[in-house]
């Protein structure tokens, strides 16, 4: 195994474990804790785990991975805005909202599957069929949940901020969801057709 493969295997294994922790804690929180406790427990974990994932833009730009740079940047940037400018900066909006745990659930399921997919690919050279199917199919349900949750929290943050500039920026991003969400969804459908057709 090359140094690049070893690095990517370690990186994807770490991300799998971080998102698995967030997923299991979120599932437990649905039944045993309040929304506020979920926020105080998971907000720092999610913020830093997602910030770590911003390095994937560099991976794509330098050719370490074959991921498209624009798509990788769009997803990483959008999520970093969410965790820093909304969830961290507006705890009064996030902590009491149903949208926060639902967003965490959608993000963590998707990312546990995604990173585990790459762990198998790097370690074994192949991926179990069920994991491949999950990687390219679960977005049908998870993507709308994640997008709706993100939009809802940003909308409420825009309505409570006292800064006209921040409000304007948030409404600009909210408007970008209109063309951006279908574009990303269409991209994932095309990827699904291409990858699963090879199986």
Automatic annotation (TrEMBL):
The protein's Enzyme Commission number: 4.2.1.134
Keywords annotated in UniProt: Endoplasmic reticulum, Fatty acid biosynthesis, Fatty acid metabolism, Lipid biosynthesis, Lipid metabolism, Lyase, Membrane, Transmembrane, Transmembrane helix
Name of the top EC class for this enzyme: lyase
Main location: endoplasmic reticulum
Membrane topology type: Multi-pass membrane protein
Listed pathway(s): Lipid metabolism; fatty acid biosynthesis
Gene Ontology BP annotations: fatty acid elongation; sphingolipid biosynthetic process; very long-chain fatty acid biosynthetic process
Catalytic activity: a very-long-chain (3R)-3-hydroxyacyl-CoA = a very-long-chain (2E)-enoyl-CoA + H2O
TM ranges: 7-30, 104-123, 135-153, 165-189
UniProt keyword annotation of Calcium present: no
GO function term, MF aspect, one: very-long-chain (3R)-3-hydroxyacyl-CoA dehydratase activity
Protein function: Catalyzes the third of the four reactions of the long-chain fatty acids elongation cycle. This endoplasmic reticulum-bound enzymatic process, allows the addition of two carbons to the chain of long- and very long-chain fatty acids/VLCFAs per cycle. This enzyme catalyzes the dehydration of the 3-hydroxyacyl-CoA intermediate into trans-2,3-enoyl-CoA, within each cycle of fatty acid elongation. Thereby, it participates to the production of VLCFAs of different chain lengths that are involved in multiple biological processes as precursors of membrane lipids and lipid mediators.
Family: Belongs to the very long-chain fatty acids dehydratase HACD family.
The protein's name in its UniProt record: Very-long-chain (3R)-3-hydroxyacyl-CoA dehydratase
């Amino acid at each position: 195994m090359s140094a690049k493969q070893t690095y990517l295997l370690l990186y994807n294994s770490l991300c799998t474990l971080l998102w698995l922790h967030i997923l299991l804690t979120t599932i437990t929180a649905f039944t045993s804790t309040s929304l506020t406790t979920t926020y105080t427990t998971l907000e720092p974990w999610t913020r830093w785990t997602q910030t770590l994932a911003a390095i994937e833009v560099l991976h794509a730009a330098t050719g370490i991975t074959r991921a498209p740079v624009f798509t990788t940047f769009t997803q990483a940037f959008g999520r970093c805005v969410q965790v820093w400018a909304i969830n961290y900066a507006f705890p009064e909006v996030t902590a009491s909202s149903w949208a926060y745990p639902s967003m965490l659930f959608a993000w963590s399921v998707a990312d546990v599957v995604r990173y585990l997919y790459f762990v198998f690919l790097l370690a074994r050279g192949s991926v179990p069929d069920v994991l491949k199917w999950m990687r390219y199919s679960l977005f049908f349900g998870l993507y709308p949940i994640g997008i709706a949750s993100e939009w809802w929290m940003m909308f409420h943050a825009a309505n409570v901020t006292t800064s006209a500039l921040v409000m304007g920026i948030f409404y600009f991003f909210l408007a970008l969801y209109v063309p951006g969400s279908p574009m990303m969804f269409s991209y994932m459908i095309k990827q699904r057709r291409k990858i699963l057709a090879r199986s």
